[in-house]
Amino acid sequence: MKMNKAAILVLFTMLVMPWRAGADEIIRKGELLTLERAVAIAAERHPNIISARSSVDAAQSRVGQARSGYYPQIDMTAGYNRIKPTSSSFSQSQGSDTTTSSASTSFDQYSASLALTQNLYDFGKTKAQVDIQVFNLEASRDDLSGVADVVVFNVKQSYFSVLKAKRTRDVAEETVSQFVKHLDQAKGFFEVGTKPKFDVTKAEVDLSNAKLNLIKAENARRVALVTLNNALGVPDAPEYLVEDNLSFQKYAITYDEALEKAYKNRPDLTALLARKAAAEKAVTLAEKGYYPFLTGNAGYTRAGESFPLNNGWSVGATLSFPIFSGFLTKNQVEEARANLKVIKANEETLRQNILLEVKQDYLALAEAEERITNAELTVRQAMENLEIANGRYAAGVGNPIEVADAEVSLSNAKTEHISALYDYRVSRASIEKAIGLR
Hints:
About 65% of the residues lie in helices and about 15% in strands.
């Protein structure tokens, strides 16, 4: 159902996070943040979702405005005027004398009236206006779901980026530890005269490079946390921990299933379909400009120069028939039909884009899954190679370049494995967004 997606989002927020708090309290310092809680925080705090919810409220109000045409319109007026008419002069002759008189008397005038008008029949114009706003309300709810889908995807992507950066930092720390051990070993061999000074210098250079990579990895982790805070809508969140769920979990779905769900669930498509229905109603509404409308009216008036005021009333009906409006209705109909054609073309474009998006995400998911298997094998091989290189060096038959290459190969293999896990989780989040699944 179209209304359920937004309702599910709100209900999910209420269940997972049933309290509202300030920015400094919504995430406690040192808290272990799960992905589910991160999504709930974004649903509560992200400004894009708040804005979309307000748009839904505004659309709901427009439905009420359209329905006001069904109800009588009542107006009450009251007035007071102090009136002094213009002077009037006349002449009166008495013998040889002429007398001029002037009459200019001021008086008060009070009035009060109550007027009622009621649309009796307008050939469905009001109903069409209500239908249009109802479809627009459905579209705005779907827009809210679409905004929520984007926010949820951004949270997931940022969340997994933090995990990727953390694991990459851990690999860099392991590499530094290994090079520290290798440096100590090279110094020991040099001191007893079994290895040249070159081995010590080479180990020092390798250790410096490893420390530099560690600094970069730690900075990337901090940047990833800042990005996650922004995705949550809590940019000033305190330091917290992130639950590591970057492990591989196979997502079973076929391409046909994904495409079918996308056409059924995508909020941007359902919103466009609702707007297409509204545009069809807009054509109907414009065509009704050719028809007359019947209005009933009633009034009650009290007026006079002094109290008690005189009263009067009226009741009647008015039939208005448009004869000629300068081709206004004709052009309104043509505009509504053109707008409907635009929406139909946009619908076809969106369906094509959905197909492309689902196909790309599905292929990316399959690729990442294959990379994970190969990366795991590469890590095992690199670990064996490092053990062999260390053993050869300890036995005096190896060289520091061989050990350093093995260390770098293991570090790269672990990093590639982490990247494959990250790409798989992001690809899964992306295809869930593409098929309208939150």
